[in-house]
Amino acid sequence: MHSDDSIPSMRRAPRRTAIAAALVFALPVIPSTAATLGDAVTSALTLAEQLPRAAALRDESAAIRVQAASLTAEDPAVRLKGLSDRFTENDGAYELEAMLDLPLWLPGQRDARQALADAVAGQADGLSLLLHWRMAGLVREAVWDAALAHGRLRQAAAALTSARSLEQNVAKRSAAGELARMELVTAQQETLAREVELAAAQVDYDKAIAVYVQLTGEPRLPEPLNQPVVPPTLTEPLTLPPDHPLLAGAGGDVGRARAARERVAADRHGHPLLSLGAKRARDDRSLDAVDALQLEVSIPFGLKRQHAPELAGAERALTDQLADLQQLRRDAERALNGAVLARRGAEQALTVAERRASLAQQALSITRRAFDLGEADLTALLRAEEGAREANLDLALRTLETGRALARLNQALGLMPWTE
Q1: Among 33, 86, 272, 294, which is 20 to 30 Å from 284 by CA?
Q2: Is the alpha carbon torsion for 36, 37, 39, 43 positive or negative?
């Protein structure tokens, strides 16, 4: 299938012959406004409602940054205190206090939160890239499933056209007495068999298109089917790029875990508490009240054993993320090696299929000429047409398989489709 082929209508006429006539050889052409593969991926992400995940992480990063820019390490608090001897000696003695508690930053604590905010923002970028890459893989598979189904549909339509032409030729020669009636029946059976194949190919294509439309919401296959279009050079061993989306996503998780560990370590000493306030007091009614300002400082000890569980938990989370990153790297390298081998195999299979199709077409031409001259029977012609039909179908599918192998190689390399 070429990238300029659009999706044929999914409605089928009641009669199989009407279907066959509508699908012979060509399908409608995609207009120039067809979506690109990148557009299809973005549309699929929107339908799947995955993009808000990255947006939520960016909001979290902004919130951490606002907290780090705050004047106090935690929420300030107001303390009020009152003492009176009204219900005891009743000499008129009292004390009134009002204190404002201000948790303070220790050196490094504010910077640790800024670093955590940066790490969460990096995690959001990595997640966004990872979501696009994963969806690109699903869309690429759906596109090429539809393309392969379309290739089978085109070949089935071409086979039906050939069978109809042969049936008409046999009918004329049978009417002229050159061929037996049984030859015409055989040709008619061949035409019916091709109609059944076309109907089955149409069903398979409708299913593949339905999957693509449900995934992307796009009514047409993208143009071109592959992005990037130019295949990588396979003469040298391909290596996993350092900015591979799978590694970028895992790297963002590692960065956050590392920043979270540093934040926990910085907070291990707690936050000093600065209290500012005023006090009014008198000893009895005969004396004037005395006003005073108060200043208090509370410094936590920050014992290591009290924060050991939280520190150990942060270290364990970082270790888990590092282990996951290494496993993902190995998985990505294995997938890349498999894609490279599959691409080479597809190219080799295409070369063989081209030779096979050429030979089968030569054999068909010779047999058809012999049949027209009465030197070969219908059975030999049908056998030659069957061989040519299978060879042509194999060539078409091998061509498409080469395109799908390129798509899978692009996916394994982490190459993202672009949008316009």
Answers
A1: 294
A2: positive
